[in-house]
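pasting for ref. prot 1 ->
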Amino acid sequence: DAGADEASRAACAAASYVAAGTGEVAARALQLHGGIGFTWEHDLHLHLRRARADSVLYGDAAVHRDRLCTLLRRTPASASA
């Protein structure tokens, strides 16, 4: 329990960083591979679909950043000094 607040903030920061990059990386990979990336012969369409589904299921970067801001506001002033 002693580090629960810090762990929650770290998890939110990591989730926001990953959520921001996942969709962009998958979309750029699709552009890089061209037409083959959107066909059944390549697994790239699965990664793109997973990235989009994860942002709906677990929240996008904005959701995690908002939660991080909420957690930071709840931190007592004496803990940050």
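and prot 2 ->
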Amino acid sequence: MINTNIRHIVLCLLMLVPCVLEAQTDRDFIRQGNKAYRLKNFPQAEVQYRKALSKNNGNPQALYNLGCALMMQNKASEAVKFYQKASEVETNKLRKAKIYHNIGIICQSGKMYGDAIKAYSESLRNNPHDNETRYNLALCKKLQKNGKNNKQQQQQNDKNKENGKDKQQQQKDKPDKEKANPKQQQQQPQMSKDNAEQLLNAAMQQEQQTQQRLNRQQQQQQSRSLEKNW
């Protein structure tokens, strides 16, 4: 008789368990998620925050906390998605500033400086006194500028390199073009053997005449010298 009563009590308790779970609210799941998050059990925290959203998909705290849990697990793109949802329903400016600050952190880590600048700027609009966000904004602007300068320099280097290749190719192609056009080579004036001999004979004759003229001048100078010595 006693055993029968105990079995009935156990069955009743088991039947009550689903009712207890059903009675949990989104805030209950958020508290459980926060506890797991503080213990750095981020996967368990993610589970609890998702349960909270299943109860209330517009809860900004659950959306933001889920983004943080995903961020700590290096699920950056999914974290941004929930941060953006949280920013759409959050009305508190300070909490909204934190949402955009975290979006900026993710974009900055991915070297998406343009998106990071937008997120940090939006964060400062909601909380102008956040010096850390202001510093990150200035840093991203500098990194974006340096990136553009480096890109322009690389493009110029590539252009110069390409121009150098073109010039080298032109130098290589030039002899080929000359070989491919034998008519042009045939049109160049060439000296025949007879012309060469005529020029050589003329040069020799001119040299003989010059030598004879020098001999006559030398003889005249010698005769004048003898006359003078007398």
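The radius of gyration is 48 Å.
The chain has a mean pLDDT of 79.
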